[in-house]
Amino acid sequence: MDDVRVNDRLTIPAAELSWRFSRSSGPGGQGVNTTDSRVELSWDLLGSELLPLMLKERAVERLGNRLVQGVITITAAEHRSQLRNREAAAARLAALVAGAIAAPPRARRATKPSRGSVERRIAEKKRRGETKRNRRSYPTD
Question: For 60-69, how does the pLDDT look when each residue is reduced to its tens digit (9 = 90+)?
Answer without folding.
Answer: 999 888 889 9
